[in-house]
Amino acid sequence: MDGFKPHSSHWGAFYGRHQGEALEIRPHPADPHPSPILGNLPAIAHSPARIRRPAVRRGWLEARPDNAGKRGSDGYVEVTWPEALDLVANELRRVHGEAGPQAIFGGSYGWSSAGRFHHAQSQIHRFLNVLGGYVRSVNTYSSGAAMVIIPHVLGPYDTLDRKSVTWDAIERSSELIVAFGGMAVKNTDVHGGGISRHVVRPALSGARARGARFVLVSPLKDDIATDLDADWLPVTPGTDVALMLAIAFVLVSEGRHNREFLDRYTTGYPRFEAYLLGREDGVEKSPQWAAGICGIAADTIVDLARSMANARTLITVSHSLQRADYGEQPVWTGIVLAAMLGQIGLDGGGFSYSLGALGNIGKSQLAVPLPTLKQFHNPVPDFIPVARIADMLLNPGEPFHYNGQALRYPDIRLVYWAGGNPFHHHQDLNRLRQAFKTPETIIVHETAWTSSARHADIVLPATTTLERDDIGAADRDPMMIAMKRLIEPVGEARDDYEIFADIAERLGKRGEFTENRSSHEWLAFLFETTRAALAAGGHPAPDFETFWEMGELQLPVKPDDGGPARAFRADPDANPLPTPSGKIEIFSETIESFGYDDCRGHPRWFEPNPTTRAAESRYPLYLVCNQPRSRLHSQLDYGDFSRSTKIDGREPVRINPADAAERGISDRDIVRLFNARGSCLAAAVISTDVKPGVMQLATGAWFEPDDADAEIAMCLHGNPNILTRDTGTSQLAQASTGQLTKVDVERFVGELPPVRILDGMTFIDK
């Protein structure tokens, strides 16, 4: 193919070739809607933001570990690989000897590569387990509340709720799709492990052409494709539960709920109904009650409830809704509402969590397993919910609650991070900056000079996916890709596997970590898992070298039979749910037994926390901090496509015309968003697609403080997490609440400071 080689990314399969200074990218020819994020890839080969040699923070070299307060503002010294590896090995040896593996936190976030072997999260966890273990994190920033509540209500996360409704079923059978939080097509450009075909757009268009109706419940009009002609209900941010309860109230008061389904397939409904009708607390959750909370007219709520009862209705709840205070509640209430309609398990009906949030959710399941690198056993019992890292670092030994457990934060002396950028994912970045000044040592593997790298002591340059061979494969995607190296490693960058192997050798553990296999031998070894399953199922099963020469391999998928929900509906006795009752838990005795005041035994509306409400009363605007369309999280923010969406080098923030006019803000003005936690600069985009009283600023701009030594810094680039709150959803999940915050905004006046975070690093001589 004219020198083009196959490769894959989280935002799509593609072919690439590198000639001279140019890296040329072609989307996979079978992909009907390739992601424009592929346009960020060519910058990998030459960007000044890339880390080219190992580097060590000057203050750590001179006065470790007593110089931690300079993290984030200190200079760096480049060193040789042997020097850097010796420093890492010696620090691991020291901390193990003085405090044990329970003093080491192993951070990662899994999105650094679509490859099955060079998967940074697997590599670092395998490495630390070989050394004796580490303190781990559980769940994700994207879906932390759902990952805890769904197992109590339906069973294992990602089973009944995300493997029972397909895009094909929606296209052929759904009559009404009510999307709480939306189904933004930009989000379906991405899936962990890769996407060979982006099918969401044609599936939704096909459903619309057949006559399906879409209802969007979101403060952002473009949270669903514009050609679907969706009815837009511009809900007040954070109030979807009140709207859901009012819909449920109409169903009950008009006798439109499915009593037979509730009796046979659920448990605890009478207790929920008592709350719904006000018998429990004296407050009827009526449309009139909800209208004053969510901003949707009572008549509109009544009409929607009746439509939902009279159609094959699918309820979807997005990631975004559960990334807020009491985030467990919208997911749980959406499940209950679908159960009241009695359509769970019907073709194109029922409930689906996060449909439209990732590209492969809604596709058919694979019929064979995928290659997986074994991580070994972690003997350290300590863990934290992933979004509680700042709490852990700032409050060692302090108690916290999580999912029925009374735990304590471990005392972390060394943080080892590979594959992730916490200064993108985490909230209240000024607080995180202080938290990152507490460990004795922070080690990172990074590809570029992100803020995470700039807050580390030892920085090891890692290769990107383009600089190594791997196997690309993802759950629910039927194509396995031979990811062939497209460019030589930039500078002295090395694969994570090679880095860990050399450190393990210094600690006498190389054989255990590598099992005496090279990277290529690992690829062949891991491929055998899938090849053997293909052969056992009577499918074409080439050996690894043949697959590598072919470049890609089609994998069989299971039939679209309605999945676990259909089986449960057909025979709940033969196919019970893995919940205490074997049914959908509308009331959970387990959760009630925890005694939490912020997550009770059935879903309910919680008024905003009084302390939070008082603290944020001075800030009149909601800020929605959603995912960007120009990159995956913060990856490749230096890429051409990501840069093309900025205005004068800063992230765009969308503002309703009324809010802009009130503040004298014009289109493309540089503005300052602010609250008590900090501030950031961004470029105003005036838009009627944003509800009045709401602004929208995507996450992912690399954090650049105006004063690295200041306790409360301003981000010059437009990272909204300088403004978001670092608090858990509830004691149940302790998940991220980073989707929403309260702010104000003003035109920036004065000399505009430059944005330099994407320009790389200037080093200090030894």
UniProtKB/TrEMBL annotation:
Molybdopterin oxidoreductase N-terminal domain residues: 7-46
Catalytic EC class: oxidoreductase
A GO molecular-function descriptor: molybdenum ion binding
Assigned EC number: 1.-.-.-
Entry-linked CDD domains: MopB_CT_DMSOR-BSOR-TMAOR (cd02793), MopB_DMSOR-BSOR-TMAOR (cd02769)
Recorded family membership: Belongs to the prokaryotic molybdopterin-containing oxidoreductase family.
Name this polypeptide is given: Asp-tRNA(Asn)/Glu-tRNA(Gln) amidotransferase GatCAB subunit C
Organism of derivation: Rhizobium pisi
